[in-house]
Design a protein that fits this description.
about 425 residues; alpha/beta; Immunoglobulin-like; Aminopeptidase; 2 domains; 6-stranded mixed beta sheet; 5-stranded mixed beta sheet; about 30% helix; about 25% strand; elongated
Length: about 425
């Protein structure tokens, strides 16, 4: 009997003193170098709260609870910036108040280019960039006159300290550079524009499937791929079936400082045999008459007042296009269109219809590389049938994602 009582008391003691989280949070740490920045990821097997502080030495990540590390924390010998990560537990007044601290040590001065959180699984991500070199302090060596009086010493202005010369830390990248040294910044924000919406159905197939539905489905799938695989911020011009004016779409991209603008559409033609994807970037003069007619159809959404988009367009439109048509945007838009068109050609197994130019109003005023992609012809029976298949829409989103990824890699190499 005494033995049973002892067991019950011991069991009660264990229950009372169990920590709030009996099984510690498990953290997996990984890192990899990109062109121009290094990414370190703290992945938890469940959601956790945290705070972080950055110093000259590195980053200190403080979790709200105790955590175990899945793998041995290694020294990052091959990393551009990372040296090592040290983990220790800070004891609280009770076991359930223990917290974990991760100290990320860097090989050189750094800035946090970007910091964000991803879900499923829960990940805390830091993109780190090398800090710009400190300006060298110029030292003038002069012979000191030992007869200098104390009064003169007091009148001498204090020398500027190294701290005063050091430029302030920046929390965004790239670092500020002079106009002559300006380089393209790393891409971290993309705007996806699902065409049409609300009362604007867009093109309608023989089976009553509408362009606005397809473009939204593909846009949301593409958003998830970019966020989960690239960890970039995605701006959507619409995330539900609603009307958004053409001007509002590009304004949203500009306001959110997006670095890419991808407008998704579905094509239609009176020629039922027409098939395959087409990708466009903006130009005052269309590549051909068919491209011009398509732009007129897309520009007529919501009955906006239109200018005659031809060689005799008015001065205002020419000015708008001139502002857009800076060499860097035209060149970059063309490159992005090439990458996406190539991936869609493989998916659709069609002859290349080519990258084209047309005066699409939704692409005008875009302060970034901007393209419009017609993923397939809803007027073609076989392609309409594919567009009804959700798994095929997954493939379209994947092709767009691959094309965008290839462009980002190409673009980010220019940052080096």
């Amino acid at each position: 009997m005494k033995h049973k009582i002892l067991v019950v008391l011991l069991f009660s003691f264990v229950l009372v003193n169990l920590p709030l989280f009996p099984f510690p949070l498990s953290i997996n740490i990984r890192s990899f170098d990109h062109k121009g920045f290094t990414r370190i990821v703290f992945e938890g097997d469940e959601v956790f709260e945290y705070k972080y502080n950055a110093s000259q030495v590195g980053i200190e990540l403080r979790l709200s609870r105790k955590a175990a590390v899945k793998k041995q924390i290694e020294v990052f010998r091959r990393s551009q910036l990372l040296d090592r990560v040290v983990h220790h537990v800070e004891r609280g007044s009770t076991p359930d108040t223990d917290i974990s601290i991760f100290q990320v040590h860097l090989k050189t001065d750094f800035n946090i280019g970007r910091h964000f959180v991803l879900e499923q699984p829960f990940r805390v991500v830091f993109d780190l960039v090398k800090a710009p070199a400190k300006p060298k302090k110029q030292v003038n060596v002069q012979l000191k006159d030992t007869r200098t009086t104390k009064k003169k010493e007091e009148e001498k202005p204090p020398e500027q300290t190294e701290e005063q010369e050091e430029p302030p830390d920046s929390q965004t990248y790239p670092q500020p550079q002079s106009r002559e040294e300006k380089k393209p910044s790393l891409i971290n924000t993309i705007c996806i524009d699902p065409g049409h919406g609300g009362s604007d159905l867009g093109a309608v197939g023989r089976q009553k499937i509408t362009e606005k539905v397809i473009t939204l489905k593909v846009g949301l799938k593409l958003k998830r791929l970019i966020e989960s695989k690239l960890g970039l911020y995605v701006v959507m011009t619409r995330e539900k079936d609603e009307e958004v004016s053409l001007n509002s779409r590009v304004s949203k991209a500009n306001n959110q400082k997006a670095q890419l603008f991808v407008s998704i559409h579905v094509n239609s033609s009176f020629r039922k045999v027409a098939r395959g994807p087409e990708t466009y970037y903006v130009s005052l003069k269309a590549t051909d008459q068919e491209a011009f007619q398509l732009s007129q159809k897309e520009n007529s959404s919501f009955k906006e007042e239109l200018d005659k988009l031809a060689t005799d367009a008015d001065d205002e439109l020419k000015l708008i296009l001139w502002n857009m048509a800076q060499t860097e945007y035209i060149k970059e838009s063309s490159k992005l269109a090439d990458f996406i068109q190539a991936e869609l050609n493989i998916l659709m197994d069609t002859a290349n219809r080519g990258v084209k130019q047309a005066p699409f109003r939704v692409l005008m005023r875009a302060a970034m590389p901007a393209i419009l992609v017609e993923v397939a012809f809803i007027s073609n029976y076989s392609e309409e049938k594919k567009l009804l298949d959700n798994s095929f829409l997954d493939k379209i989103a994947s092709a767009l994602y691959v094309g965008i990824s290839k462009y980002i890699y190409y673009h980010n190499t220019l940052y080096q």
